[in-house]
Specification:
Helices cover 30% and strands 27% of the residues. The chain is of the alpha/beta class. Strands 4-3-2-5-1-6-8-7 form an 8-stranded mixed beta sheet, with helices on both faces. α1 runs parallel beside α4. It is globular and about 40 Å long. The protein starts with a strand and ends with a strand.
């Protein structure tokens, strides 16, 4: 069965964006970009909630125009464009970049997605979707990049999980001398 890998950037105080939705603080330095690309290399499907999707689709289709000299953009943009993308949203009508929209029966549809043949599924960013999938026991790995910034508000890395979730530390890795990537697996009873 395929795994769902949750890859998210957070501030030291646990926010995935600032009080006004800003995401200008998560610099993707060389080692962190390599870590991200390694996760992408394990995945053949991308999974997004609506807010993360809106941010991604605004940038990645033409990313090379915005950042022509960025090595991560040179690697990730073609992968992003070529990889099937699933968006979880009740209101997203779909678009040219969306392969599939999940509107209802979240746990059932995601379990079905995991059961399909293929490589792993990469859930990028988001808080509400990550919390819902965590509560349903559907996330298999958590990779959390903690950046050295205190935002003081915004959306939490997990939007109000319904109950406590115990995780097992797999690895902690400092990257580029400034970011700490924490890799966890759920403790299954």
């Amino acid at each position: 069965m395929r795994k769902i890998i949750y890859w998210v950037h957070t501030s030291v105080d646990g926010f995935i964006d600032g009080p006004n939705g800003e995401f200008d603080w998560a610099a993707l330095s060389p080692e962190l970009a390599a870590y991200s690309e390694k996760l992408s290399g394990r995945s053949d499907t991308l999974l997004f909630g609506r807010p993360a999707w809106d941010m991604m689709v605004d940038f990645w289709p033409t990313a090379e125009q915005a950042a022509p000299d960025d090595p991560h953009v040179a690697v990730f943009a073609p992968y992003w464009r070529a990889t099937p993308k699933v968006v979880v949203s009740r209101s997203h009508p779909g678009d040219d970049w969306t392969s599939e929209v999940i509107r209802e029966d979240l746990a059932g549809r995601i379990a079905e997605l995991k059961a399909r043949p293929g490589a792993d599924i990469l859930l990028i960013g988001g808080a509400i979707l990550a919390a819902a999938l965590t509560a349903a026991g559907l996330i298999d790995e958590y990779h959390i990049a903690v950046h050295p910034v205190v935002l003081g508000g915004g959306r939490r890395v997990f939007a109000s999980p319904a109950e406590r979730v115990n995780l097992r530390l797999v690895e902690v890795r400092p990257v580029d001398g400034r970011v700490v990537v924490q890799h966890y697996a759920p403790v299954r009873s």
